[in-house]
Specification:
The chain is α+β, with helices and mostly antiparallel strands. It folds into 3 domains: 84 residues, Rossmann fold (3-Layer(aba) Sandwich); 64 residues, ATP-grasp fold, A domain (Dna Ligase, domain 1, 2-Layer Sandwich); 108 residues, ATP-grasp fold, B domain (D-amino Acid Aminotransferase, Chain A, domain 1), CATH 3.30.470.20. It has 9 helices and 13 strands. Strand 9 and strand 10 form a beta hairpin. Helix 1 crosses helix 9 and helix 5 packs antiparallel against helix 6. The protein is globular, with a radius of gyration of 20 Å.
């Protein structure tokens, strides 16, 4: 950010004051707030729906403020982050990370560029182009919205008939869903890994197992979790992925490919960690706060 003229200097970030910006109160946001209170931090919960920013305010109350960005909505997240950073706040995670992590195709390209193993993928920009791309890419394939969470609108396409049915539906949806993003269906155990990165360390990780009759590993779909050991290989690839996307506090989701070993399939900049705390006992909210406030000193 450009330094203001005159006697104003770069923002002086307070090390004992924090805003938690949210648009949906989950267990995680409550845990962060309670952890902040226990640490004696001057913490404010701010609903993004109530956040109003005067974008030309040179003396904004947000200047010098540390903000933990927890808005689930991609569009609210990136726009409120841009506003806050422009007003002199330090936002975790920053705008660059929010933009990249929140879009699966953006993230894939940056991970690929950094040489990080990730599922093979193909993109198309029309229904006809999508079907043609799949003929060459091969089945089965997984179709994902470029922006979305909790496994919504993700489908496993086993053949051309299934693909045609899904693509025909998407042709009548919001234009975002007419950007067709496909990943290979990775042969792996019936689980994936969620690793929590805080700064330059993986503080905890869990295996997330698919629920009965499900191929997705989302806990909301009936899966279960177990503790996952944090090996050197796991930590290395997670830190590389976080760095590639500019993330400071992120959840890295990985698969154990039978062919290629560990590969990253998603990096979450407003990661959920309830199950990781429950299974591992690690004080993730406390570690996140220590990092955030340490960045503010």
């Amino acid at each position: 950010m450009r330094q203001e003229k005159g006697n104003q200097s770069s923002p002086n970030f307070s090390g004992n004051s924090l805003i938690i910006l949210y648009d949906n109160i989950r267990w995680e946001e409550k845990a962060l707030y309670e952890a902040a209170k226990k640490k004696g931090v001057n913490v404010e919960n701010l609903d993004c729906k109530n956040f109003v920013a005067n974008l030309n305010d040179k003396k904004s109350k947000y200047r010098g403020q540390v903000v933990m960005q927890r808005s689930v909505s991609y569009f609210k997240n990136v726009h409120s982050t841009a506003a806050l950073e422009g007003l002199g706040a330090r936002v975790i995670n920053p705008l660059h990370a929010a933009i990249l992590c929140g879009n699966k195709m953006y993230a894939h390209m940056m991970l690929e560029k950094a040489g990080i193993r990730t599922p093979k993928a193909v993109a198309a920009f029309s229904g006809e182009g999508a079907l043609a791309a799949l003929e060459e890419f091969g089945y089965p394939a997984v179709i994902k919205p470029t922006v979305g969470s909790w496994g919504r609108l993700i489908a496993l396409l086993r053949d051309k008939e299934a693909a045609r049915a899904v693509i025909e539906d998407r042709e009548h949806m919001f234009p975002l869903y007419q950007v067709y993003y496909f990943e290979e269906f990775v042969e792996r155990p019936p689980r994936d890994i969620r690793a929590i990165v805080v700064g330059n360390k993986v503080v905890a990780a869990i295996y997330r197992y698919s629920g009965e009759g499900e191929w997705k590993t989302n806990m909301a779909l009936g899966g279960h979790a177990e503790a996952c050991p944090v090996t050197r290989d796991l930590e290395d690839i997670c830190i590389q992925a976080a760095n590639a996307l500019g993330g400071q506090i992120v959840g890295v989701d990985l698969m154990e490919s039978k062919r290629d070993g560990l590969m990253v399939h998603e990096v979450n900049n407003t990661t959920e960690f309830k199950n990781t705390v429950r299974v591992t006992g690690v004080d993730i909210p406390g570690l996140m706060l220590d990092y955030a406030l340490g960045q503010g000193k």
